[in-house]
Amino acid sequence: MTFLDSHDIVGLAATPDGRRVTGARVLHRAGSAEQVLGADLVVDATGRGSRTPVRLEVLGYPRPVKEQVRIGLSYATRTYRLPPDALDGDLAVLQTATSEHPRSGVLLRLEGDRWMVTLAGRLGDHPPTDPDGFLAFARSLRFPDIYQAVRDAEPLDDPVGFRFPVSVRHRYERLDRFPDGLLVLGDAVCSFNPVYGQGMTVAALEALSLRRHLQHGTRPQPHRFFADLARVVDVPWDIAVGGDLAFPGVQGRRTPKVRLINAYLARLHAAATHDASLAGAFLRVAGLVAPPQSLLHPGVAVRVLWGSLHPATASTVVSSNRDAVQAAPSLVDSGDMSP
Ligand SMILES: Cc1cc2nc3c(=O)[nH]c(=O)nc-3n(C[C@H](O)[C@H](O)[C@H](O)COP(=O)(O)OP(=O)(O)OC[C@H]3O[C@@H](n4cnc5c(N)ncnc54)[C@H](O)[C@@H]3O)c2cc1C
Fold first, then answer.
1. Which of 30, 167, 209, 309 has the highest local Cβ count within 10 Å?
2. 302 alpha carbon to ligand 1 midpoint, in Å?
3. DSSP states of 217-238 as a string?
């Protein structure tokens, strides 16, 4: 196997009729002449900025339909020095966004005595990256835990901002024509709002799908491959888009199904604040280790109904959230809990 470091892929090589991709055109960043890397199969894993839609057009194919959901997400992140027991042994505080409180934040223990705070806003609400503004944003969160933990702590760096304007899904599976010898996967196919923490899991599941398609020893058939990828992407895309559409300012079609699911999930989230098993059930679905239908199981639905009729008090919220994290340790270990 050969790895070409410091090279950029600048195009595809194909047969004169464009029916088969035969390699990738690469360029060394130091500025040498372009070279063609011949390949039986080219897999575009260049992420969100993938140029495959444009390159398909150059080869005489239509671009895939592009679905977008604009969320205008902004992060700001800063690390602090705090004692390891700053949260009484807990590893994280996670405050997720709701339509009423669209600001969110997470405080996470890192190695040693370092802790990371990430604050997030939506639809143009940018957490400031100046120290005072950053703290003020932390203070504005619905619950005081994160602000109280860091307000007098020693910061180890300056806040750093990051913006994610829009989730994008390219519908390669709907194309009638596609060249042989080329596949696309990962963020190049679908780039999710990162708050749901799904992208790496989905990319890994897609890599497993690629392995299955390669097992026959022949070049994978693009239509079948993209149909399999669509099955991998459908559920996490529905979770992310459905979640984003719960915010009134996000544009998109709110089908009766989306409205019903969001109404149910709002009740589930409320009930989960004092029911660890519900919180664990939700985290398993969000972490893609359980199917969404598991949240409609009668045993879960009854707890949701019961919980929404008996709202939590502040103290039960704290203790049962701790139980929920313990109930879903694999999700915490893998870090699948973005703000
Ligand atoms: C802020 C943030 C937080 C996230 N949190 C999580 C999380 O908690 N859990 C989770 O599962 N996912 C998370 N994700 C999503 C996850 O990072 C992506 O889904 C995942 O990295 C996609 O992998 P990929 O290999 O498809 O693309 P990428 O990781 O983007 O890799 C693409 C690679 O291709 C290279 N490349 C691009 N163009 C060229 C070119 N022309 N020539 C050569 N090389 C090129 C790039 O340099 C890059 O190395 C998060 C994303 C963001 C932005």
1. 167
2. 39
3. SS---HHHHHHHHHHHHHHHHH
- For 87-116, the pLDDT digits (tens) are 888 899 988 888 889 999 999 999 989 999
**Model pLDDT, residue 145:** 93
Hey, whose CA ends up nearest to atom 9 of ligand 1? 197
pLDDT reported for residue 311: 67
Ligand 1 pocket residue status of 230, Cβ below 6 Å: no
Our mutation pick for probing the ligand 1 site, out of 200, 202, 233, counting the most ligand atoms within 8 A of Cβ, is 200
The parts of the chain modelled with pLDDT lower than 70 are 311-339
Please give the model's pTM, rounded to 2 decimal places.
Answer: 0.87
In angstroms, the CA 54 to CA 296 distance is: 42
What is residue 311's DSSP assignment? Answer: P
Whole-number Å distance, alpha carbon 238 to ligand 1 midpoint, is: 20
In sign, the C-alpha dihedral spanning 281, 284, 289, 292 is positive
